[in-house]
UniProtKB/TrEMBL annotation:
Keywords: DNA-binding, Transcription, Transcription regulation. SUPFAM superfamilies: Winged helix' DNA-binding domain (SSF46785). PROSITE patterns: HTH_ARSR_2. Gene3D superfamilies: Winged helix-like DNA-binding domain superfamily/Winged helix DNA-binding domain (1.10.10.10). One of its GO terms (molecular function) is DNA-binding transcription factor activity. PANTHER family: LMO0101 PROTEIN, TRANSCRIPTIONAL REGULATOR, ARSR FAMILY. The keyword Thylakoid does not apply. This is Metalloregulator ArsR/SmtB family transcription factor. The keyword Zinc does not apply. Residues 6-98 form the HTH arsR-type domain.
Amino acid sequence: MIIKLTEKQEDELRVKVFKALSDPIRLEIIRYLKKVNRGVSCGEIGEIVKMSKSAGSYHFKILREAGLILTRKQSREKYVSLNYDIFDKYVTKFLDSL
């Protein structure tokens, strides 16, 4: 099902996308997800980026709300992956620059 956003909703999403991309830690998370090109546990990313669980939760929330990552839960673990559709729509070629 395709949901059509209003112009105002599109602008709000753009603001969230650029806010999410304005932090070096979140860029590091995105860079790692691009490099491995698969769903990765939040714990694995936390170890790679060297951040606490609470800091990780905060950064994943910002990325998820911007639509830049997809989250799936399997058992007790959460896995995240890049949402290429949002990158393609709002920041075309951005991933190539990382």
